[in-house]
Amino acid sequence: MRGRRGRRWTGTLLVVAVLGMGAAVTAGAYDVVEHGEDRYAGQVMDRYADDLSAAVTDRAGRYGETVTDLAAAVGAQSDLRGDDFTRITATLDAVRLPGAASIDFIVPATTAQVPALQRHWRGQGDRGLTLKPAPGQDMHEFVIFEHPFDGVDIAGADLAQRPAASEAVRIARQSGRLAISPAFQLIRDDNLEAAQRQTSVTFAGPVYSGLGSDAPDVFQGWIVMPVRGQDFLGQTLLDRGQGAVQVRVADGASALATVGPGRRVPDDSLTRQRVVTVGQRHWDVSLWPTTQLLRATDRGLSRFTMAAGIALTLLLGLMTGMLTGSRNRALQRVDEATAQLRDDISRREQVEATLRERERELQDLAFRDALTGLANRRLFHDRLTQALAGHIRSGHRLAVLFVDLDGFKAVNDRLGHHAGDIVLRTIADRLRTGLRASDTVARFGGDEFAVILEGVSVPDDVRTAAERVIAEVRAPIDIAGGPARVSASIGIALSGSGATADDLMREADSAMYAAKNAGKDRYVAAF
Question: Which of 232, 254, 275, 402 shows the smallest number of beta carbons within 10 Å?
Answer without folding.
Answer: 275
